[in-house]
Amino acid sequence: MALPRGFGLLLLLPALGGPGAAITIPSEFLQPPELTEQPPEQLVVFPSDDVVLKCAATGNPPVQYRWTREDEPFVPEEHPGVSLAPGSGTLLINASLAGRLQGRYRCAASNALGTALSTESRVIAENTPQWPKEKVLPVEVEEGDPVVLPCDPPKSAVSPKIYWLNSRIVHIAQDARVSMGQDGFLYFANTLVGDSHPDYICHAHYLGPRTIIQKEPLDLRVAPSNMVQSRRPRLVVPRDSQPSHVALRGGTLVLECIAEGLPTPSVRWQRLNGPLPRGRVSLENFNKTLRLRDVEEADDGEYECVAENSQGQARRSHLVTVEAAPYWVRRPQSGVFGPGEVARLECAVQGKPRPRLAWRINGVPIDEVPGSARRVVQEGALVLSQLEPNDTLVAQCEAQNSHGRLLANAFVYVVELPVKILTQDETQYMVVENRTVFLHCRAFGAPAPTVEWLTPGLEPALQDDRAFVFTNGTLRLRPVARGDGGTFTCRAHNAHSNASISAHLDIRVATRIEVPPQSVTAKKGQTVTFRCVAAFDPELSPRGLEWHRDGQRLQDTADSDKYVLSGDTLTVTAVDYTDQGTFRCRAWTWLDAAEAEAQLRVVGRPGPVWDLQVLEINERQVRLSWTPGDDNNSPVEKFVVEEEEGFFSAGRFVERVTVPGGQPWALLTLSPYGQYRFRVLATNAYGRGEPSAPSAPIDIPAAAPERNPGGVKGEGNETSNMVITWQPLAPGDWNAAEVRYRVQWRPLEPEGGRWHEKTVPAPPVVVGGTPTFSPYEIRVQAVNDAGKGPEPPVTIGYSGEDLPLLYPENVGVEILNSTSVRVRWSLTGPPRDLRGHLRGFRVLYWHEGWVGERARRQAPPAPPGAPPSPRVVTVPGEAHGVVLGGLRPWSRYRLRVLVFNGRGDGPPSDEIRFDTPEDVPGPPEELHVERVDETTLALEWKRPRHPNGVLMGFLLQYRPENHSEAEPPNEITFPAGTLNTTLGRLQPRARYRLALHALSRVGPGAPLLRLGSLRPEPVLPVLGSVVVGEVGEDFTVLHWTLAHPQANVEFKVQYMSKTTEGSWQDSGSVNSSLGLFRLRDLSPGTSYRVQFVGRNHSGHHVPFWESEVQTNGTLLPRPARGFATEGWFIGFVSAAVLLLLLLLILCFIKRSKGGKYSVKDKEDTQADSEARPMKDETFGEYRLTARRRRRGARGGLWARRGRRWAVTTAWRATAAAPTCSSTRTAPSSGSTAAPAAPGPPAPAPPRPSTRGDPPGDGDPPPRPGATDPSGAADAGAPLWHWGSPPSNMGTP
Question: What are phi and psi of 732, to 5 degrees?
Answer without folding.
Answer: -65, -15
